[in-house]
């Protein structure tokens, strides 16, 4: 989740029941559950497969950076091999070269190719990945994974530095 607690807030505000499965060794700039806020039900990294078979969920949303690729790959592979009927959406912001460096490139390609939908940070990223994956007939969307809540932005901006006179 990095520093994006508002994502959790917005999903809960809209009535979603959230389940969390977290990477084991995050970087210092990653935040993983359990969180002191929210109503996320955390799944154990040890028996998440069993819980996934028990829960009723509408969608699985995997995200966001290269650190999550291995875990998201395991989840999607499990869904496909066990013919579970959960749509899996993969939201990837950054890190294809880290995936190559750390040996997760094939897992990233699997996620992009086998997800029910993909979310990219921008159109340029989508075009870049299109060199490797045929996204024809795939559900695609472009959205930065670090956007703040829309209604936080108002029209009362401070004056731009470029509008101020020097001297």
Low-pLDDT stretches are none
Query: What's the shape?
Result: globular
Discrete helix count: 6
How big a fraction of the residues is strand? 5-15%
Derived from helix and strand composition plus strand pairing, the structural class reads alpha/beta
Name of the CATH first level: Alpha Beta
Number of domains: 1
Summarize the biggest pleated sheet. 4 strands, parallel
List the secondary-structure elements in sequence, H or E. HEEHEHEHHEHE
- Termini distance? 44 Å
Proportion of residues in helical segments? 25-40%
Mean pLDDT: 88
- What is the C-alpha radius of gyration, as a whole number of Å? 18 Å
Strand order of the largest sheet: 3-4-5-6
Which CATH architecture is right?
3-Layer(aba) Sandwich
How many beta-strand elements? 6
What would the CATH topology be?
Answer: Rossmann fold
Would you give an account of this structure?
This protein has 167 residues and is an alpha/beta fold. Helix content is 31%, strand content 15%. It is built from six helices and six strands; from the N terminus they run αββαβαβααβαβ. The chain has helices at 5-13, 48-54, 69-81, 96-101, 105-114, 123-129; strands spanning 19-20, 41-42, 60-65, 88-94, 117-120, 139-142. A four-stranded parallel sheet has the order 3-4-5-6. Strand 3, helix 3 (69-81) and strand 4 form a beta-alpha-beta unit. Helix 3 crosses helix 5 (105-114). The protein is globular and about 65 Å long.
